[in-house]
From TrEMBL:
This is P-loop containing nucleoside triphosphate hydrolase. PANTHER family: OS07G0160300 PROTEIN. It comes from the Eukaryota. Pfam families: AAA_33.
Length: 203
């Protein structure tokens, strides 16, 4: 049976994972293979640089960053809603670190009949490879994403700040966990695993 025929009207593929975990690369392959829109939270956050630099200097830098980060999520939720209203499946590239963000997607999926939400989590088991990727990206300027951790110490501080909030229960929402640092597995193979996972979840 053809994959598109086997799926419900819409599928939300919600990526999950820390910076440098390989989720953006995988998200792009998934979206290209499915032929559906990709909404990248960093595309929105990257665009707030001018705003951040012009905001009231009396506010702490952390407060400003939190405000703009929250704004970035609000923007992508609106974009997701628009795509779903058009009957389109969608891939969302964001850390999905907080359960409140996950809950928004659950509620959004419920608002559109025939919509299946699935989570694809990129969880690097090889910390050395994860660190190498992250620091190499940092040397290249994080591809213009100045707000991303550029060093391993930056990453450690980010994880400390999460205080374990990233490890939450997704309930009955299907979730696939992939080790994107496995050197013997290509991104195309991971993409195929995701497609099979979606097929299994939507039959």
């Amino acid at each position: 049976m053809d994959r598109e025929e086997a799926r419900p009207q819409r599928v939300i593929v919600a990526m999950k994972g820390h910076p440098g975990s390989g989720k953006t690369t995988l998200a792009r392959f998934i979206a290209a293979t499915l032929g559906c829109p990709l909404i990248d939270k960093d595309d929105v956050r990257d665009s707030t640089f001018t705003i951040e630099s012009q905001l009231d200097s009396n506010k702490t830098n952390t407060t400003i960053q939190q405000l703009l980060n929250n704004l970035s999520y609000e923007v992508i939720w609106r974009m997701v809603k628009t795509q779903l209203s058009l009957g389109l499946s969608i891939v969302i590239d964001s850390p999905l670190s907080h359960k409140s963000h996950f809950d928004r997607l659950v509620n959004m999926a419920k608002c559109f009949d025939g919509t299946q939400l699935v989570v694809v989590e990129c969880k690097p088991n090889d910390e050395g490879e994860w660190r190498r990727r992250l620091e190499n990206r940092g040397k290249d300027g994080c591809d213009g994403s100045w707000h991303k951790p550029a060093t391993w110490r930056d990453m450690e501080r980010l994880l400390e700040g999460y205080k374990g909030c990233t490890e939450y229960d997704v309930g009955d929402v299907p979730k696939l966990v992939l080790d994107t640092t496995a050197m013997d597995v290509k991104v195309t193979e991971h993409t195929e695993l995701v497609l099979r996972f979606i097929d299994a979840c939507t039959h």
